[in-house]
Each structure stands twice: as C-alpha cells, then as structure tokens.
Amino acid sequence: MMKKVTIDFFDQAHFLSNLKAAPDGSCAAYLECQCRDKGYAKSLFLHDGKKNRRLSSEGVIDYVWEDSQTLLFSAYHRPGQKEASPYGEQTDLYRMKTNGGEAQFVISLPLAIEQMEKLQDDQLLVTAQIRKDCPDFALLSEKERESVMAQRKAEEDYQVVAESPFVLDGSGFIEGTRSRLFLVNLFDGKIEALSEPLESVSQFTCAAGQVLMSVKQFDVVRGEQDGLVCLDLESRRRRCLIPQGQLRIRQIGWRQGKAVFFASENKTFGTTGNPKLYQLDLQTGQRSCLLDTQEHIGSSAVMTDVIYGSGRQVLFAEEAILAVHTDRYADEILSISEAGCAEVLRWPGAVQAIEKVGDQLWLIGLKDQNLQELYCWDAPSNSFHPLTHFHDALMAETEVAKPEHFVLDRNGYALDGWILKPVDFDQTRRYPAILDIHGGPKTAYGEVFFHEMQYWAARGYLVFFCNPTGSDGKGDTFADLRGRYGQIDYEDLMAFTDAVLERVPQIDCHRIGVTGGSYGGYMTNWIIGHTDRFAAAASQRSIANWVSMIGTDDCGFTFDTDQMDADPWKDMLKIWDQSPLQFADKVKTPTVFIHSFEDYSCPIQEGMQMYNAIVHHGVPARMCLFKGESHGLSRIGKRHHRIRRIQEMTDWFDHYLKENADA
Fold first, then answer.
1. Distance (Å) of CA 447 to CA 132, 386, 609
2. What confidence tens digit (pLDDT) does each residue in 569-580 have?
3. Could you tell me which of 129, 153, 348, 648 has the fewest CB atoms within 10 Å of its CB?
C-alpha cells in the first residue's frame, strides 16, 4: 500500500551540497546532510562514477581537496579536546585519505573559518570572521587571546552598535565584524593576515599565485557595491582592479589568465537587477563585457523547501564558462565564451550544484517530483542518469501529486501557474483549496517537490501556485516591481485564482485559503486587506509596514527603499500606500501569523503589527512565534519547529476550510 506525504517527511530526505571534483577528475566528493532533533548533520561522501560511499561520520562543516587522494575538512569540536571559549574563535581541521582509514586530526586554528582554498606546500587560504576591535586576534599569543576573551565576557550583557546594518538574518548582530583573508601554514600553524582590517572579503579565488577577491571596506555604513582586488602571493603586491562603489560583484573566477566576474551596476533595475559577465585583463586593465543580458545567470531561482545548502553554480574554465540559469520555471546550464552564449542542457527542475568530473558534467538537482540526487549528464545522448539512489525506495512507496502546468494570458504577458491535485482526486467531489505564494519576490516556483504543498495535497487540499509579475526567470523587466508592490502582482494573483476556479469547478470557492512567506507573507497581508474571497489565511515571516521595515530589517536602507522607489523623508505616502497595515481595518479573513524571534529579514514586529491591527478590528487571529529561529524557519529550522509551523497552518486551514465539509 502506498504511503502519503507526512508532516515530517523531510526527516527521510538526504540533502546534498558542495559538489567538488578531485584535482585529477577521477571522482568527486560532496556533503550529505540529514535533519536531526538537535540540528542538521553533515557527512562527507565520495563517488567515482560507479560507487557511492560515505567517508566520514556526521559533524563535517566544510572541506577542500588537498590532492587527488586526500581531503581536508573542518568539523565540530572533537571529543577529548580542551573546550574552546565561546568568546573566541576556533576551527578544527582533519585530513582523510579517500582510499580508506580514519580521519586524522591536523590542527586547531584560532579562526572561525568561512571559506577555504588549498594551495601548495601545506598552505591554506581562508576567510574567517574577525571583529574590528581586535582584527589580529588570530595573530596574538594564547595569553593575549585569553585577555581579549575575558574583556568580551565582561561585555556580554551589552550590545553596542556604531554601524549599519548591524544585524544579519541567520547571523544575528554583526556589529563590528568583517570577513578577513588569511594565509595558514598547516605544518606549523603560522597565520598571516592578507586583507586590510576594515575590509570584508565576500569571495576569493587563487590561480598562479594571484589571489582575486571582492571586498567592501567601510567604517560605519556598509554599501552595496564592492571593490575588486588582486594580490600577488609572492611579492604581497596589491592592486585595485575595480574601485569600490562602481559595481555589485557576484561570482568571481579566473579564465585564460584574466579575471572574470558577474556584476551589476544596480541602476536601470535597482538592487535586483541581473548581473552582466565581465572579463578584465590584469596587464592592461581593460575590461570587456562577455555577456550583456537582462537574464539572471549564475544561480537557480527555483524554490523548494527540501534542500540544505547548495554548491558551485558557475564553473570558470579556460575554454568556456558554465553557469546555471533559470528560464521561466526550470533550470538550464549555459556555456559562455567570446563566441556567445549557448544552452548546454535543459534540466526539468532545479539545479543546486554543477561540476566537471573528468570530461563529464555532474550536478546535484531536483526533478520529476523526486528529492535530491547526484546526476551525470551524457553529452552525446543528451541524457541524464542518477549516480546516487538515496530516495528510490522512499519515493517508490510514497504517493506524490503531480503539478499540472498551464499558462495564463494576461493581455500582453503570460503567467506560468500550476494546480496540484490530491492523488485520489475525484471529479464528483467538492474540494477546499490553498493559494501558495512564493517569497522574493524575485524567485520562481517550478515543477519540483515542495513539502508543504505535497503534505496539504495528501490531506485532501487542492494547492495552486504561480509566478506573478516580480518573479524571476523572465528577465529584468518582468521582475521589476519597484514602487508597484500590491498592484500588478495582486491583480495577477487574483486573475490566476479566477482561472484556477474556472479550470477546476470541483473547488469550493467558499473554502479557499491563502498563504505565503516573506514576500508571500506580504502578499497574504495585502490580499486579506483587499478582498474577503479567502476563508482563511496563514501569513508567514511577513511584511506589514514598509516604514518600520526600512528602519529595522537587515537591508532596509538599500533593498527596501529601492523596492518602494521612495524613502521616508522624500515620499512617506508612497511607502505607506504599499504597506498592508494601511488596509488592516478592511480585513475580514481569519488569519494565523507565523514568525521567528530572530528573523532579521522581516523582523518580528511586522507580524505583530498586522496581528494586533486585525484583532482590534474583531477578526479571528492567532500568532505563533518561534524562539531561536531565523527567516529560514521553513527550510533550515529545527526539526520540531518545522513540524509545528506546518501543524499551526494546517490546523487553521482545517478549521476554516474543512468544517462541515462532505466526507
């Protein structure tokens, strides 16, 4: 007998990420992660094209290849070791041979390592988080570090801020922190700082002794634009290739001895404008554009709630650059060179990581309503075959609903939308339904497994979803919502709802719910203030008042003012007109609010404001607030919190959409 998707179905998922080929191209390693009661546990796996095997126990953080037979990885605190101070920084590194044997402890470093890249002769390039009040913490003696940590302990009851932004979702208060580049000698533990104390290095890569890094240097206000710097490791000579303040730099790399990078000016389409691909000659300083497009190339925009981490989505190679790109609602991999841009393969779903392994292209992805697997693409036959089979047995015994795609003509542009019917859909019955709205807004829904939707379909709901104006996958012009939030996007969603009701007359129009998170939460708040057609709503990590958002979230003075096309000093009314709170007195829809205390992207007061407003206007409402969670609750939250989140929404919908329904 087939099983239904359960509320804790993600417990059985294996999340794959960080795919990296061995230097000789003979195999590749990746991280496998599972949800546990106390968090997410990562292990190292190796695949040689024929056999998949686990290399490590759980507890790995990150890894690099030292050579084609050796992996160096960071892991959580090892048993028996002296406990590290919670006021300091520490990373433990281990070495493991791929042909077998136990991992061997290498060194413990006084650095909170973020990124690693292996050089020759036991040298390692790393970025690590430092504090500007003691940028050389890792370079101090042990006694000096103990003194610094004692001072920090004395200050632990106080949070002083003198920068902006001073919080970051998922990280908490980031006041005074920077990511600094260090050179580490694994043999003797010697550490050398390579970047400036006030610089924050967001990315780096090294080739032929040249380190390319994108940096932001600031004292008080962190800007959006980066600088691009090249550092010669032998001479320590530093050159500024692009001054800070011109471009927002995304992925960086090397190709044919030249620096290549994706970057945007953020002018024509604001902070969400898609990047162009540039190439820069280090000898002449000449910069040329390899790809000028309005498309978002370099990462996937397709959303899902069954991944944890990702990997490289751009490969900088000598002959051509390979990059992931979302076209409407599915990913493809493009090849970019001076000859132009060409599609290498089209993937029927979402791609989280790509890698060249020998002469093959491997990828981690979701397709055909399956959970993640590692795949190999065969170029001659243009076909894929799975290299891993983590979920074969699980998916074979589970009923999974198939989304039905249709295109809605909106008088000049088209909307991609889907209807997810219960597996046992009966045309003679009447069904409750839920409109699910994605976040972003510059993301996209696609035909991939989405746990919350599948769970509701398994419980007898018809779920429908679409990519309204503002979504990714169709270029900058379609994605540009600046100054129009709650206008054309709202009209799209209502027209789409009408189209679904027309296509599926089995839906009971009096028993429809609406939900969404982040931008989807904003739209949920907006919808309930503009129509009473929905019988229930679940507003998640939402936005209610852009005026308060601009002064409290982690990107308010950049993203929010850009998206509102106004700021509170020049046009407060325009911001207020795009705020759902203005229309809270019109709400009639019973609504449950889901929010996290440590959500710094959509701060908790946004949900509180909307909840209080509608309650005081007599509307049934409930609010469930999660301690110790961030904006990513639905995807990376603690196991019991993820379950409670879905249970809160499901109970609410069951009460308002199923009560007195036919069996």
1. 45, 18, 35
2. 999 999 999 999
3. 153
Q: Angle at Cα 591 formed by Cα 590 and Cα 593, nearest 5°?
A: 160
Q: Looking at residue 267, what DSSP letter applies? A: S
Query: Is residue 65 a contact partner of residue 23, using CB atoms and an 8 Å limit?
Result: yes
Give the distance from CA 290 to its chain's centroid.
26
C-alpha to C-alpha distance for 223 and 240, rounded to whole angstroms:
18
Is cis: bond before 620, omega within 30 of 0? no
Contact 230, 206 (CB under 8 A): no
- Answer yes or no: are the C-beta atoms of 512 and 528 closer than 8 Å: no
Prediction pTM value: 0.96
Quote the mean pLDDT of the chain. 95
The rounded distance, in Å, linking the Cα atoms of 454 and 371 is 12
Backbone angles phi, psi at 212, to 5 degrees: -105, 130
Tell which residue, 635, 631, 564, has the closest CA to residue 168.
631
pLDDT given for residue 82 in this prediction = 53
381-402 CB burial, b ≥16 within 10 A, e <16: eeebeebbebbeeeeeebebbe
Q: How many C-beta atoms lie closer than 10 Å to residue 424's C-beta?
A: 11
Please tell me the predicted confidence (pLDDT) of residue 78. Answer: 55
Strand partners for 207: 210
* Contact between residue 209 and residue 231 where contact means Cβ atoms under 8 Å apart: no
Place 662 in a pLDDT band, splitting at 50, 70 and 90: very low
Rg for the chain, CA atoms, rounded: 25
- Mean pLDDT (whole number) for 101-116: 94
**Alpha carbon distance 281, 136 (integer Å):** 33
Q: Which residue has the tokens 């402890």?
A: 105
CA distances to 88, 412, 481, 589 from 489, in Å: 47, 15, 8, 20
Given a contact cutoff of 8 angstroms between Cβ atoms, the answer to whether 501 and 582 are in contact is no
Angle between helices 451-458 and 639-653 (to 10 degrees): 40
d(CA 404, CA 385): 25
**H-type helices in 409-545, by residue range?**
451-458, 476-479, 488-503, 519-528
Dihedral (C-alpha) 607, 562, 295, 216: value to the nearest 10 degrees? -100
Q: Which residue has the tokens 């069951």?
A: 654
Q: What is the pLDDT of residue 85?
A: 55
d(CA 373, CA 528) in angstroms, rounded, equals 39
The DSSP letter of residue 164 is: B
CA–CA dist 635, 308 (Å, integer): 7
Q: Percentage of the chain with pLDDT > 90? A: 92
DSSP letters of 563-622? HHT--TTT-HHHHHHT-GGGGGGG--S-EEEEEETT-SSS-HHHHHHHHHHHHTTT--EE
Contacts of 518 (CB under 8 A, 6+ apart): 439, 440, 540, 541, 542, 543, 601, 602, 631
Rounded to whole angstroms, the Cα distance separating 341 from 325 reads: 11
Query: DSSP for 301-366?
Result: -B--SS-------EEE-SS-EEEEEEETTEEEEEEEETTEEEEEEEESEEEEEEEEETTEEEEEEE
Q: Who contacts 120 (Cβ-Cβ below 8 Å, separation ≥6)?
A: none
Instruction: Encode 131-140: b = buried (16+ Cβ within 10 Å), e = exposed.
Output: bbebbebbee
The secondary structure element, H or E, covering residue 392 is helix 392-396
Task: Quickly list DSSP for 85-132.
Answer: PTTS--EEEEEEETTS---EEEEEESSEEEEEEE-STTEEEEEEEEET
